[in-house]
Write a structure and sequence with these properties.
The protein is an alpha+beta fold and 211 residues long. The chain has 8 helices and 9 strands.
Length: 211
Amino acid sequence: MATTASPTSISHRTGPRYIAHWVCKTPRREEMIRWYQRAFDAHIVHKDKTIAFLSWDGESHRLALVALPGWLRFLFPFAKIRRKLLGFDHIALDFGTLENLLATYVRLRAQGIKPVWCINHGLTTSIYYEDPDGIRLEFQVDNFATAEETKRYFGTRAFAENPIGVNFDPDYLLQRLQSGTPVQELLKQGSGTPPGAKPVGNMKAINWRTL
């Protein structure tokens, strides 16, 4: 006879453990597949006329691409602009270390994939990309060793005065990393501003490209 767990025996932590996958409906499916294969080193788990499943780690699938007729891109010519003004903005993906983040930047740069925004948010060092459909992906690394330290940063004066962050030059940051500058120093705001350049931060970091 089946038993039913009592409410008191169920954990109050009912939130999800992690983001398992996301699904995109796209009229550019083949282009999207190629982009994610280059950007994430993804491989195709399944593909038919309707849907393709991709993965790049131990999960069975991380991304599903539902094929739509190509002519739909002409019916919705401003679809990429919608994200800038309304609704879901981006997905953030953690790369663990600054070394991994910058190595990914170098790998993608060699394949012609360039970031749309590089900014130290204070709590993270982040490089933003957009896929062929304009979906924005934040490649990030935490600037603090623990989640508790990050939470405390939200309550600081530094965050109150600049909740957006400070832009950085990824090539200059990479140069400093390769020259032996300690990673903890490179995770500080302003560390990616080349000598002689004026730091761009807070609302001045927001423009049509970075929005």
